[in-house]
Design a protein that fits this description.
alpha/beta, Rossmann fold, Dihydrodipicolinate Reductase, domain 2, 2 domains, nine-stranded mixed beta sheet, 9 helices, 16 strands, elongated
C-alpha cells in the first residue's frame, strides 16, 4: 500500500516533489497546500486536490507524510505543527536556519515519535557518488583534498532566495548540498572552518562563497559556489596519497591518474614559456595509470523509497538527525567566519 503524501508549497521544488509523487511506486499524492492563488489554480488545473489551509491538511487522517517546500524561514513552525498533528515530516533543504531551531524540530520528532528528516536529494548526484566510491574503494589511498564547485552565470534567482529574512543566499541554497556531500565523504572530525562571501549581483545575501573545511587529520575540503562565473571550473578535483582525480562536469566520468612509482630514473626537463623545468615535467605511463570510472547508477526516488521503508520498519532513515546538525553547524561556523573575517575553530 502506498503512503499518502501532502506537499506544502507548490513552487519549484514543491512541483518537483509533486511530479515525483504522481509517478511514485511508494507514495500517493493526497494534495497540496499553498497560500498563492495562482499556484492553487495550477494544482487544480492538474487535477490535484488543494487543501484550503495547512490545518485542513493536518486534519486529514489519511495523510502520513508532509513534505515542506516553502521558503526556509517557516520550515520550523510547519514541521513542528505537522509532527504534533501525527504526521511524518520531510523538510526541503536547508532544514531550517539555525541549530537552535533544528534542535527544537528534533525534540518534536523525539517527543511525538514521528519521522523527521531533510530532503538531501543531491546525495544521489552521480558526480558526488563517483568521488564517494573512489574514497571508499581505497584506490588512491587517503584523500588529502577534495575541491567541490558549482559555477553559473545568472546570479541568484529573482525570488525569495535573494532576500535575507527568508533564508536566501547561496550558502543556504547550494552550499547546504555541497557541504552535506563533503561531510559524507569525510567522516572524521573537523578542526576549523574559513569562509568568504561574494556580493556581485546581490548586496543583501551572498551570491557566492568560498569555504575551506579543515579536518583534524589534516585533510581539507574546499567548497565554492559562484553565480557570476562565465567559465566554470571543474565540478570536483581530488588529491590523494596515490594520485588525483577530476570530474569536469556533473554529467561526465571521473578521470583518475594513479601513481605507480614516485621516482623516474631520468626526468627530462621540459620547455615552458620562458625556461626549463623538471619539477613540472609531465608524468608518463611508466609511473602512472590513467583511466575513467563508470558513471554510478542512481535513482533519486530511492530517497522516498527509504522514507517509506523506514515507516514500515524495514530500514533506517538515510538522512539522520546528527548528520543534519553537523551540516548546519558547519553553516553556522561559516557565517561566523564571514562576520569576523577569521578562521573559526570547531570540532564537529
Amino acid at each position: 500500500m502506498k503512503h499518502k503524501l501532502c506537499v506544502v508549497g507548490f513552487g519549484g521544488m514543491g512541483g518537483w516533489h509533486v511530479n515525483h509523487a504522481l509517478k511514485s511506486d511508494v507514495v500517493e499524492l493526497a494534495g497540496i497546500v499553498d497560500i498563492d492563488e495562482a499556484k492553487r489554480k495550477k494544482a487544480r488545473d492538474m487535477g490535484i486536490r488543494v487543501y484550503e489551509t495547512l490545518a485542513d491538511a493536518l486534519a486529514d487522517e489519511s495523510i502520513e507524510i508532509i513534505t515542506i517546500a516553502t521558503p526556509n524561514d517557516v520550515h520550523e513552525e510547519i514541521a513542528i505543527a505537522a509532527m504534533e498533528a501525527g504526521k511524518n515530516v520531510i523538510s526541503e533543504k536547508p532544514v531550517t536556519l539555525s541549530c537552535a531551531s533544528l534542535l527544537r524540530m528534533i525534540d518534536a520528532s523525539n517527543r511525538t515519535g514521528k519521522l523527521f528528516t531533510v530532503h538531501q536529494n543531491r546525495r544521489w548526484d552521480v558526480d558526488y557518488l563517483a568521488v564517494k566510491q573512489l574514497k571508499e574503494s581505497g584506490e588512491l589511498g587517503k584523500l588529502l583534498t577534495v575541491e567541490s564547485r558549482i559555477h553559473g552565470s545568472r546570479g541568484i534567482p529573482s525570488d525569495w532566495r535573494g532576500i535575507k529574512r527568508f533564508g536566501g543566499g547561496m550558502l543556504y541554497d547550494w552550499g547546504i548540498h555541497l557541504i552535506d556531500q563533503i561531510m559524507q565523504i569525510f567522516t572524521q572530525k573537523t578542526s576549523s572552518v574559513y569562509c568568504t562571501f561574494d556580493h556581485i549581483t546581490n548586496n543583501e545575501v551572498d551570491d557566492g562563497f568560498k569555504l575551506t573545511i579543515t579536518f583534524e587529520d589534516g585533510a581539507t575540503a574546499y567548497v565554492e559556489v559562484g553565480t557570476y562565473n562565465f567559465v566554470a571550473m571543474p565540478r570536483f578535483y581530488v588529491r590523494a596519497k596515490n594520485g588525483s582525480a577530476i570530474i569536469t562536469d556533473w554529467t561526465k566520468n571521473c578521470e583518475v591518474v594513479k601513481c605507480k612509482a614516485w621516482h623516474e630514473s631520468d626526468v627530462v626537463p621540459v620547455q615552458t614559456a620562458a625556461g626549463l623545468t623538471k619539477t613540472m615535467a609531465p608524468r608518463d605511463e611508466i609511473t602512472t595509470d590513467t583511466y575513467k570510472l563508470d558513471i554510478p547508477k542512481s535513482d533519486v526516488h530511492d530517497y522516498y523509497r527509504n522514507i517509506c521503508a523506514t515507516l514500515e520498519g524495514k530500514a533506517e532513515q538515510i538522512v539522520k538527525h546528527d548528520e543534519m546538525l553537523r551540516v548546519l553547524r558547519v553553516i553556522e561556523a561559516a557565517f561566523k567566519s564571514v562576520e569576523t573575517g577569521n578562521v573559526v575553530k570547531c570540532e564537529l
